[in-house]
Automatic annotation (TrEMBL):
Assigned keywords, A-Z: Allosteric enzyme, Carbohydrate metabolism, Glycosyltransferase, Pyridoxal phosphate, Transferase
Entry's EC annotation: 2.4.1.1
Taxonomic lineage: Bacteria, Bacillati, Bacillota, Bacilli, Lactobacillales
Family stated for the protein in its record: Belongs to the glycogen phosphorylase family.
UniProt-recorded name of the protein: Alpha-1,4 glucan phosphorylase
One Pfam family hit: Phosphorylase
Function per UniProt: Allosteric enzyme that catalyzes the rate-limiting step in glycogen catabolism, the phosphorolytic cleavage of glycogen to produce glucose-1-phosphate, and plays a central role in maintaining cellular and organismal glucose homeostasis.
GO biological process, one term: glycogen catabolic process
N6-(pyridoxal phosphate)lysine PTM sites in chain numbering: K646
Gene: glgP
Domain of life: Bacteria
Catalytic reaction equation(s): [(1->4)-alpha-D-glucosyl](n) + phosphate = [(1->4)-alpha-D-glucosyl](n-1) + alpha-D-glucose 1-phosphate
UniProt xrefs under NCBIfam families: P_ylase
Length: 807
């Protein structure tokens, strides 16, 4: 039936009755949520089926985005928006006395990722579908997502995130598409004349069961698939699992998302996870490809596999294994196809995140994969001999000092390597991966990250969206670059005021939320100054904290500047559970917050709010209310950043170092519409090359720095002696790895400039408008089009007519 408000209301009441035998007034928000999601799902399922059939019929090349993390957040609102149902459903439910926003709050975030890399993977899923492109996700269905963060006495406590507890209405378990993954054991090669057959002994067999989630494109009828794998005991193997411990081992394989994106621990389990989802994914892809009835020598024309950072790097060896061992292709033919199929994105230059695996662990996890990697390595060295200097070959080969270097495997085994912002890609080419760039210049390319404006503007910020519709029409909803039309209104007081009003409403909404969550009352007159991202030393939350302490001491000592503006500092950040330094910073932020928020002399001048459990759905509440976006990593360290893009799109002004995508933001909005400070990448590298940074001198010679740092150790900030000392020592004794002291003065100066600018509201609103206007330049729909054209060579289905989803 056609979709309209009245028909929907009937459908809703009937479905609620069928499912729960309840009237609307007797149903809980949970029951209402599950009813609504079931209607949504049954309306897109037909398109889901049609989409993949169409890809098959048209012989479309399909791309599979392999990622150990996905961070979709909540799906209800984005499905409603993308189906074109959002406003009608909101209205219809209102008639039934139901508040859509309230029932949307019931949905638990799907938080199967740590941070930027996982969120980008989900933005790309949304954009692939919205661009009508044949692209699917492949990952792990973690029983517990990223831990739930609580603060107790200011310390981060990690609780299990039981996101599946009340059921997940979006997934479909596809038992019939299960595959078997082999782990561990031993392998022998038996000569069968024209090929070598691997014979396995004592391997553990795991049944990989896919759970599929539909990814609904924006108003285009395309519905793609994100496939996440669960691990089970195959029925044929039941007898081998006699004890609870043995059975638990299988469950454990997919139970937790490896919660540490900075350090390695629990190593073997992590590597097993990596092989598990890679092998399951590639087996199911090859099985699907066989339905195309094409030669395996053409698989590269029909299939692309994207290696999202190095975690899925074993894809290279797994595809080789299947092509050589199971399809009996020659090594050279198989290699040609593998390189054609694979492509790779690097997401960080932080050395500790470039995975290396000891050979003996790889041997233990999958001995055949190790053999294949050794053979790839041997052939690589052989081929490069004579062409490149020996030390260069040693630096680039895959296995070195008994370690398997996953980035090397990814680059050698694929046809494309990309960085995620211009500066990042330049750093890869010039420095981190320079040798590879010399060998394979044609493989390197940049793809600056993007965000989905649907979630971050249309859904998260309806207030601003309405203002935009009125000012420039609704085209921007389809094509966010059209937000530039706003530039015509830079001197239009009406539009400027409307934008400011929308911001105020969003600040009021967030202020209420903050009070409910933390008991802290904040004034919406203050600047809402936001830093939301993983807690990591290189991101320099500490610089922000030092600035807060400085302002606190200034006020206490009666030294407030005449144009000082009240501020509410808002943090959201999780620290990896074993990253003690990051946890010390969390503790200190919480103690500073306590000190500042409860001091009557400070009152509304400063408030510090550290919201617990930063996640996608919390970001949706914070971002629309932000006035300032803190993007203050040490230049060269943040590959791109994406919260910088979300915040500018919502009219926040950026305080930034020239790092990652901040540079591209600056290039769009112009120097006058962003607050740039701090060392540049070249200056940082000069320090590295000359070894002439002495942080202690900064402490010693700068009274301001001394005053602030002493507060961490002299009892001024209460209840964090040990943590304060650790931070103090890292910045003075251990030479301040991320140049916090070096950039402090420049940071304070730019913040004073922020205050001066804020005192001229009209000018501030104009700057805000310019940021919104260029925010649309970072749409992940555009980013993904560039991946599609330059890396994957995939194209959308021919324009199909699509009305709205019927009921
Ligand atoms: C992050 C980068 O730190 C961030 O700058 C970037 O925007 C994001 O990836 C998306 O590209 N990296 C990770 O999350 C990570 O785990 C191994 O890298």
């Amino acid at each position: 039936m056609d979709f309209n408000k009245e028909v929907f209301k009937e459908k809703f009441k009937n479905r609620l009755d069928e499912k729960y035998a309840l009237d609307v007034k007797d149903a809980t928000p949970q029951e209402l949520y599950l009813t609504l999601s079931s209607i949504v799902r049954s309306s897109y399922s037909r398109y889901w089926r049609k989409t993949w059939k169409k890809y098959m019929e048209d012989g479309k090349k399909q791309i599979y985005y392999f990622s150990i993390e996905f961070l979709p957040g909540r799906l209800l609102m984005s499905n409603l928006l993308n189906m074109g149902w959002l406003e009608t459903v909101r209205d219809a439910l209102k008639d039934l006395d139901i508040d859509l926003d309230e029932i949307a709050e019931v949905e638990k975030d799907m938080a199967l990722g740590n941070g930027g890399l996982g969120r980008l993977a989900s933005a790309f899923m949304d954009s692939l579908a919205s661009d009508g492109l044949p692209g699917n996700g492949n990952g792990i269905r973690y029983r517990y997502g990223l831990f739930k963060q609580k603060f107790i006495d200011g310390y981060q406590i990690e609780l299990p995130n039981e996101w599946l507890d009340s059921g997940n209405p979006w997934e479909i378990r596809r038992e019939s598409k299960s595959v078997t993954v082999r782990l561990g054991g031993k392998v022998y090669l038996v000569d069968r004349g024209n090929y070598l057959e691997p014979v396995y002994e004592d391997a553990q067999l795991i049944k990989a069961v896919p759970y599929d989630t539909a990814i609904v494109g924006y108003k285009n009828g395309t519905v793609n698939t994100m496939r996440l794998w669960d691990a089970e005991i195959p029925s044929s193997e039941e007898a081998k699992y006699r004890t609870i411990e043995q059975r638990r081992e299988v469950e454990d394989l997919v139970s937790v998302l490896y919660p540490d994106d900075s350090k390695e621990s629990g190593r073997i389990l992590r590597l097993k996870q990596e092989y598990f989802f890679v092998s399951a994914g590639i087996q199911s892809i090859v099985r699907h490809f066989k339905k195309y009835n094409k030669s395996m020598n053409k698989i590269g024309e029909y299939i692309g596999i994207h290696i999202n950072d190095t975690h899925p790097a074993m894809s290279v060896a797994e595809l080789m294994r299947i092509l050589v061992d199971e399809e009996h292709m020659s090594w050279d033919d198989a290699w040609k196809q593998t390189v054609a199929v694979m492509s790779y994105t690097n997401h960080t230059i932080m050395a500790e995140a470039l995975e290396k695996w000891p050979v003996h662990i790889m041997q233990q996890v999958q001995p055949r994969i190790l053999q294949i990697i050794q053979e790839i390595d041997r052939r690589f060295v052989e081929e490069k001999q004579g062409k490149y200097a020996r030390d260069m070959i040693e630096r680039t080969r895959i296995i070195k000092d008994n370690q398997v270097r996953m980035a090397n495997l990814s680059i050698i085994g694929s046809h494309s390597t990309n960085g995620v912002a211009k500066l990042h890609t330049e750093l890869l080419k010039d420095d981190v991966l320079h040798d590879f760039y010399v060998m394979y210049p044609e493989r390197f390319n940049n793809k600056t990250n993007g965000i989905t404006d649907r979630r971050w503007l249309q859904i998260a910020n309806p207030e601003l969206s309405k203002v935009l519709d009125k000012a420039i029409g609704t085209e921007w909803r389809q094509d966010p670059t059209k937000l530039q039309k706003l530039l015509k209104h830079q001197n239009d007081n009406k539009v400027l005021n409307q934008i400011a009003n929308a911001k105020l409403k969003n600040k009021e909404r967030l202020a209420k939320f903050i009070e409910k969550e933390t008991g802290i009352k904040v004034s919406t007159d203050a600047i809402f100054d936001v830093q939301i991202k993983r807690l990591h030393a290189y991101k320099r939350q500490l610089l922000k904290l030092m600035h807060i302490v400085k302002l606190y001491l200034d006020i206490k000592q009666g030294k407030v500047a005449s144009d000082f503006q009240p501020r509410v500092f808002i943090f959201g950040a999780k620290a990896a559970p074993s990253y003690y330094y990051a946890k010390a910073i969390i503790k200190c932020i919480n103690e500073v917050a306590n000190m500042v928020n409860n001091d009557p002399e400070i009152g509304d001048k400063l408030k510090v709010v550290f919201l617990e459990d930063y996640r996608v759905s919390l970001a949706e509440k914070i971002i629309p209310a932000a006035n300032i976006s803190e993007q203050i990593s040490l230049a060269s360290k943040e590959a791109s950043g994406t919260s910088n893009m979300k915040l500018m799109l919502n009219g926040a002004l950026t305080v930034a170092t020239l790092d990652g995508a901040n540079i591209e933001i600056k290039d769009y909005v112009g120097e006058d519409n962003i607050f740039i400070f701090g060392l540049t990448k070249d200056e940082v590298y000069d320090y590295y090359n000359n070894g002439n940074y002495h942080s202690y001198d900064y402490y010693n010679n700068h009274e301001e720095i001394r005053r602030v740092l002493n507060a961490f150790v002299d009892g001024t900030i209460p209840n964090c002696q040990a943590e304060g000392q650790e931070i103090f020592d890292s910045l003075t004794k251990y030479n301040d790895e991320y140049f916090v002291l070096r950039d402090f003065e420049s940071y304070v100066n730019i913040q004073e400039m922020v205050d001066r600018t804020y005192s001229n509201k009209r000018h501030w609103n104009q700057m805000s408008l310019v940021n919104i206007a260029y925010g649309g330049m970072f749409s992940s729909d555009d980013t993904i089009k560039r991946y599609a054209e330059d890396i994957w060579n995939i194209s959308p289905l021919k324009d199909e007519k699509h009305g709205t989803y019927s009921l």
